[in-house]
């Protein structure tokens, strides 16, 4: 018997957490049709001997909403084994949208997620009004991987309240309209509803985005309508008032009776507490609430280097930032310029403190090897290596830039600093690894390789998770949140979203700054090593780390029976 594709002799890690076993996998069309010792031949066969064969990974927190319009390959997550990505996070989405509000929503996305609004407006067709029409439009873009969308609070509030939605409280009628619109959007295919309570998520004019301060009646009404249509609820919290935010999340969850996910950076708990969330999570789960926190499995933060705009702050440094890369490199080769930069970096601020004390201790050099070094300790921070060299931190930064011809990058950590604490945190059964934020913060942050880090660090290097558990966390556990029953594991009848991985070699590549977006817009990207093939809906989309040109992804819509 012949098949479209056969994967031969791999170690099948099926995504359920079960013990891996050797075998073949046969695929016809977009479906797995046989697993075991498969006779016959395939129109194409892949040799997986000595390598893991896994389901495709699911990424529950991306901002590829805009990028899908001009990069349907959806790099870089496609290089990290991801075959299904959730968009529409953090409350900022492009639908539903009235024609007169297009620039307004694009401006919000630019301000919150560092994606230029001009690129958004010119790169997408904007041929929709309703959320269902938006998904139809996405489908026409023929993405390389599967896309799943949420409807955002900003769009809902703007659609109902117009620009009043930023600051004003809605009337009872407007709350009813927003709830109905959210429910309708989910009925049309949105997988759920997203909102951001984070005050730092700002409009272009500096005000917090619509919905940030929405009160309980509004949040509960929307959650109830979303849950009635089998949608999930996603929240970004304001962590400075964690107790009240979690209490509100509980109210939403009880009203929705559905899956609830929230952004969960590690926050230490009080005395005797594992973390700041645990007590209320235990309480919520005791009430039967299906709640999951998403945590990036390593430190996160900006990238500082001569190619990015994250540097020290003073007039001389701002002047350096105003130059292009070539001129920056030329400038720092001048001894007088370097001396001035170092002097200004060490001067006292107006409040009498050195300008770098608050954050320079979080600078960590990613190194000059093939893979970035994300797990350095405090004795390897920029101040530590500067002290060892008898230099000011700015002097060390500049020296390393010169030694690497401007290619060096420092990771400016602002979360998940403590890797010992993270090891315990990630083992909570209510936590899933995620939060790559791919598609956002184009020249500031690149965390797209989080799935690869799970494999390389927490499985291979630390042994914290077995291979089967690591893969479960990246696949079926995430697919369950989306409500998909035909993706996330390897079994006959499941969709053929599959990775072939050299687990001994899999690793992230060094971040790079590229210019492949419209208007020569730069962005950070990051490739990977160790992925021999990634298959989406039965087609090989990546082979030996390179795109094949196949784009076989689909826009997956919410279904009342929770099947994709």
Short descriptors:
single chain; 564 residues; alpha/beta; Urease, subunit C, domain 1; TIM Barrel; 3 domains; nine-stranded mixed beta sheet; eight-stranded parallel beta sheet; 20% strand
In CATH, what is the homologous superfamily of the largest domain?
Metal-dependent hydrolases
Give the percentage of residues in beta strands: 15-25%
Largest sheet: number of strands, sense, barrel closure: 9 strands, mixed
Tell me the distance between the termini: 29 Å
Rg value: 24 Å
Number of strands: 24
Which structural class best describes the helix and strand composition?
alpha/beta
Helix content: 25-40%
Structural domain tally: 3
Report the principal-axis shape.
globular
CATH class of the largest domain: Alpha Beta
The chain-level mean pLDDT equals 95
